[in-house]
Amino acid sequence: AQSVTQPDIHITVSEGASLELRCNYSYGATPYLFWYVQSPGQGLQLLLKYFSGDTLVQGIKGFEAEFKRSQSSFNLRKPSVHWSDAAEYFCAVGLKTGANNLFFGTGTRLTVIP
Amino acid sequence: DVKVTQSSRYLVKRTGEKVFLECVQDMDHENMFWYRQDPGLGLRLIYFSYDVKMKEKGDIPEGYSVSREKKERFSLILESASTNQTSMYLCASSTFKEFKYFGPGTRLTVT
Question: Does A36 contact B31 at a Cβ distance shorter than 8 Å?
Answer without folding.
Answer: no
